[in-house]
Design brief:
single chain, TIM Barrel, 13 strands, 36% helix, 363 residues, alpha/beta, 2 domains, 12 helices, 19% strand
Length: 363
């Protein structure tokens, strides 16, 4: 494992993506006779040229670069720490302009380059097995902060490599910040942006039925992954407190409506907690719940987290669980474990950084 501190962008200076084309053009107007053209050049440098410094924008006049210093910065976020796992997974601790910390993960598999992004600082859903929610939620991320995560991850790649897939499964509940997320993804999928395919973007949710329907009505054909994690309301409410107000049936109904409107099969995420929800009887109940529905189950063996009581399931239990689902014609897969040696489960790197800072303050 490598852990490397990097330079931090000074807070208080607006970013190129934060300003947007109109405000960026206005900021340039007093310094150059061609503000619209320069704004387009600067945007291209940030989105396509991987520029994190104005001085890297070589086709801008030096006078303009000097004039814009302190007025605008390419990116407002920066990588505070980087962990690289033996399987190549990059986990980035990202520092925002206000000093808040979030996490972004870059994963490699054959020709895929997948980035997992956060949508909130922390998480307010309170899932019992998740490190992200242990400290609660501070705020939503802005659209430019979500988009900047994609750029920071992309900048980790070799010059001839591109991001191919996005999973919105990092810190926070994506559908609780749906407007900002959709704005960021609109740029990410545009030809002038990163040119990503909507078919290669998956948005995860604990299951907010009204927001799931809003996503379905957005006109964007993103994939949807619902964190189910239990075959009945009693157990699910223990694991996901928000379930008390929604209930599994409402979530399943919204998922099927999403499929009807978008044509996108919904994936149900199911984290396997040893001795809790990984028994054969749990698999049978889950199979009955989903039988006949257009759905796929992604089984996720739990990654142990310090401070949480859950344990990873036995390998045999995972095999039996999957077989029980498929015996009832419910398709299932087991998620490959990525970044195991760098605590890649979301929220752990941020939590450790916060704990380290608290200890340092006491010294």
């Amino acid at each position: 494992m490598t852990l490397m501190p990097l330079d931090i962008t000074a807070p208080g200076v607006p970013g190129v993506l934060e300003l947007g084309r109109e405000k960026l053009t206005a900021a340039i107007a007093g310094h150059d006779p061609h503000p619209s053209m320069r704004a387009r050049q600067i945007e291209r440098w940030v989105i396509h040229g991987r520029a994190t410094d104005l001085n890297a924008m070589s086709d801008l006049p030096a006078r303009l670069r000097n004039s814009l210093a302190g007025i605008v910065t390419p990116l407002t976020a920066s990588v505070a720490k980087r962990s690289v796992a033996t399987d190549g997974t990059h986990k980035l601790l990202v520092k925002l302009a206000d000093g808040q910390l979030i996490e972004t993960v870059l994963m490699f598999e054959e020709d895929r380059r997948t980035v997992c992004v956060s949508t909130q600082v922390g998480c307010g859903m309170g899932c019992a097995f998740c490190a992200s929610g242990l400290i609660g939620v501070a705020r939503n991320l802005t659209s430019h902060e979500i988009l900047e995560q994609l750029l920071l991850a992309r900048n980790e790649l070799l010059e001839d490599e591109k991001l191919t897939h996005v999973v919105v499964m990092g810190m926070g509940e994506p559908l609780a910040n749906l407007s900002n997320l959709l704005s960021a993804l609109a740029i990410a999928t545009s030809p002038q942006g990163l040119g990503l395919s909507a078919r290669h973007i998956t948005i995860s949710t604990v299951g907010l039925p009204s927001r799931m329907l809003e996503l379905a009505d957005s006109g964007r054909k993103y994939h949807l992954a619902v964190s189910l994690h239990a075959p009945d309301d009693a157990l699910r409410t223990q694991l996901i407190p928000t379930n008390e107000k929604t209930g599994i049936n409402a979530i399943l109904d919204a998922a099927m409506e999403f499929f009807r409107k978008t044509g996108r099969q919904v994936t149900f995420e199911y984290i396997l907690l040893g001795g809790v929800n990984d028994r054969a009887v749990d698999a049978e109940r889950l199979a009955r719940l989903l039988e006949g529905r257009k759905a796929h189950v992604n089984l996720i063996p739990f990654n142990p987290v310090d401070g949480l009581p859950w344990k990873r399931p036995d390998r045999d239990a995972v095999v039996v669980f999957r077989q029980a689902l498929e015996a009832r014609h419910v398709t299932a897969s087991v998620r490959k474990r990525k970044g195991a040696d760098i605590d890649a489960a979301c929220g752990q790197l941020r939590r450790q950084a916060i704990q380290d800072a608290a200890i340092a303050d006491k010294i």
